[in-house]
Amino acid sequence: MTTGVGEVRRLGLADGSALAVDARSSLHVDVARGGRREVAMEAGRALFRVTHDAAHPFQVVAGAVTITDVGTVFEVTRDEEAGTVDVIVSEGAVRVATPQGARLLVAGQRARFAARGPLPAARAVDSATLARTLGWTEGRLDLDGETLGEAMAEMNRHNQLQIALATPALAGEPLYGAFRLNDPTAFAQAVAASVGARTRQTADGLVIER
Fold it and tell me: Which residues of the chain form beta strands (DSSP E)?
């Protein structure tokens, strides 16, 4: 399945598991009750709520990285351009296998795995950060120090109306607050005001500039 700009889809699977698939994501689901359970993630982000079945492990394959469920809720983001796979565990645990080795992540931990390089250490994630990270499943963009560049990328993933920066130095500005993912105009106007800039409408979208 493939999701378009601004399209977040929820999918119930034959084994009782469920997926929330973010905009601009592509994955192939091969899941059957009492049989094979595998999701091949080509790009994008998805949240998995997995029904545990020890005899038939649930696996998410993202390139060279394979995430195996141990009865849990977890999010996987595959960034093809950066060559990374980010895994965040909300409940339970997962085992992440890579060419460099394997790492067990438990609830409240995250790690970013690269196609090359050493196996990353697990990092603790508090409950507030977990809630903010999963805000996209409810149509929210919750920011607590993330940069304008990061926030713009998230807004552009979810909207046809694209936001651009005419002043590149603004990309590193930290942002705080909560926004609706489906309202890029309100986001751009609020952000511009907070960083001492302005917004300008163009034929291609919105531009933030000083």
Answer: 9-12, 18-21, 26-31, 37-49, 59-62, 65-69, 73-79, 84-91, 93-98, 101-106, 109-114, 123-124, 140-147, 162-165, 174-180, 198-201, 205-209
Per-residue pLDDT of 38-55, as tens digits, reads 999 999 999 999 998 888
**Confidence (pLDDT) at 106:** 94
Look at the block and give the residue holding tokens 């809720």.
Answer: 73
CA distance 117 to 126: 27
pLDDT > 80? residue 160: yes
pTM, full prediction: 0.85
Q: What's the rounded Cα separation, in Å, for the pair 60 and 187?
A: 33
